[in-house]
Amino acid sequence: MSKSYIKGFLKDILLHLIAEKGESYGYELTRMVEERTQGVIKLNEGALYPVLHKLEEQGLLVSVFKTDGSRPRKYYRLAATKESKELLSEMESQVQLYIGALAAIFKNEQEWKSAE
Questions:
Q1: Phi/psi of residue 77, each to 5°?
Q2: What range(s) does the Transcription regulator PadR N-terminal domain occupy (predicted)?
């Protein structure tokens, strides 16, 4: 899949998964994305961590180091602010709207092609 598609939705994907799980660390997020998309979307560290750090700088995520086994990991969770919760809700609505719009475009294109 084109990296430009993923780049456009990476912030949304990460915020959704972190909010859904409660908290998560980077490698776990990459595994969740790959598993849920059956390998269609694969995230690398070079794409993942800059977005996580930017979301943290914007106050949308907070992080904490935890040691759960062999080494400390940085866990991210949604900031407990009204703004972050509103943003998450708005973002999820916008993503669903966009996905629906794309489906309508490509459905119509396919119908047009089959009519030829």
A1: -145, 160
A2: 14-80
Q: What residue numbers bound the domain in which 97 lies?
A: 3-115
Query: Which of 16, 28, 35 lies closest to 87, judged by CA?
Result: 16
Q: Cα–Cα distance between 86 and 54 in angstroms, integer?
A: 18
What is the identity of the amino acid at 75? Answer: Y
pLDDT of the chain, 116 residues: tens digit per residue: 667 778 888 999 999 999 999 999 999 999 999 999 999 899 988 889 999 999 999 999 999 998 877 788 999 999 888 888 888 889 998 998 888 888 888 886 555 454 44
- Rounded-to-integer distance, Cα 102 and Cα 8, Å: 14
The total number of structural domains in the chain stands at: 1
User: Which of 77, 78, 73, 81 has its CA nearest to residue 23?
Assistant: 77
- pTM for the model: 0.82
